């Protein structure tokens, strides 16, 4: 387990998904950056547009 986290992932998800009926993202370095080199990446999101 690591304590390394992305500080920009929430803003990135908001910018890509806000206002969309459906949003699919891949937890990749290209989309979310690489704050933790050499570490397996995952993304868990619960998001609702109001």
UniProtKB/TrEMBL annotation:
Pfam families: SUEL_Lectin. InterPro entries: Lectin_gal-bd_dom, Lectin_gal-bd_sf. It comes from the Eukaryota. One of its GO terms (molecular function) is carbohydrate binding. Residues 1-50 form the SUEL-type lectin domain. This is SUEL-type lectin domain-containing protein. It comes from Dreissena polymorpha (Zebra mussel).
């Amino acid at each position: 387990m690591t304590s390394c986290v992305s500080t920009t992932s929430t803003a990135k998800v908001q910018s890509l998904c806000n206002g969309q009926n459906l949003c699919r993202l891949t937890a990749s370095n290209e989309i979310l950056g690489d704050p933790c080199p050499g570490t397996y990446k995952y993304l868990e999101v619960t998001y609702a547009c109001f």
